[in-house]
Amino acid sequence: MSRFYPDAPRAGVSVLCHREGRALLIKRGKAPYKDHWSLPGGLIELGETLQEAAARELLEETGVTAALGAPVETFDSIQRDDNGKVATHFILTVFCAAYLSGTPSAGDDAAELDWLLPEELAGRPTTPGTPERIRRLLDAVLARNIPQRQ
Q1: ω into 9 cis (within 30 of 0)
Q2: Annotated catalytic residue 112
Q3: Looking at the DSSP assignment, which residues form a beta bridge with residue 36?
Q4: CA-to-CA distance for 20 and 105, rounded, in angstroms?
Q5: In this structure, are residues 41 and 97 in contact, taking their beta carbons and an 8 Å threshold?
Q6: Under a CB-based contact definition with an 8 Å cutoff, are residues 137 and 69 in contact?
Q7: What angle is formed at CA 132 by the lines to CA 3 and CA 57, rounded to 5 degrees?
Q8: What's the pLDDT tens digit per position in 80-93?
Q9: What secondary structure does DSSP assign to 103-134, as a single string?
Q10: What is the pLDDT of residues 101-132, one digit of tens each?
Q11: Could you give all domains of the chain from N- to C-terminal order, each with its CATH number?
């Protein structure tokens, strides 16, 4: 099934990998949202669990592994064309995970990557809702409201 003008929503994952108050973001190398900063992630493959997909996508796009726990949120990402027809529809499940290992390097669909503080997102093009999501989830991590696997 195509990502563009699909006949059903596509299921995907994203990971807010954090280290010392910074989030690991990628600059998307492909549409949708080419050249926008986003959390690493992608589509779930057949037979793959949410957590397996999140770990795989994080590693493929960044070269990093993280302590993945339970998902922290799920949301719809729906974009319509100028005629109002659904151009893309993704159901995304987000994981928040502390960095474990790996040398960050942009790979797969990522054109670039960077460890950013939430305030460093101002002025950068981002995927919809990304800055707010990062602030909210990092605040929860600092307040210890999101359990982190050790």
Answers
A1: no
A2: yes
A3: none
A4: 18
A5: no
A6: no
A7: 40
A8: 999 999 999 999 99
A9: -----TTEEEEEEE-GGGGTTS-B-TTHHHHH
A10: 999 999 878 899 999 999 999 989 999 999 99
A11: 10-142 (3.90.79.10)
Tokens 């670039």 map to which residue? 112
Q: Which of 45, 112, 119, 132 is catalytic?
A: 112
In the predicted model, is pLDDT for residue 134 greater than 90? yes
Contacts of 106 (CB under 8 A, 6+ apart): 26, 27, 29, 61, 62, 112, 113
Overall pTM surpassing 0.70 (yes/no): yes
Rounded to whole angstroms, how far apart are CA atoms 72 and 97?
10
Q: Hey, what amino acid is at 144?
A: R
Q: Note the pLDDT tens digit of each residue in 26-65.
A: 999 988 899 999 999 999 999 999 999 999 999 999 999 9
CA distance 147 to 150: 9
CB atoms within 10 A of CB 98: 16
Q: Which amino acid is at 146?
A: I
Tell me which amino acid residue 63 is.
G
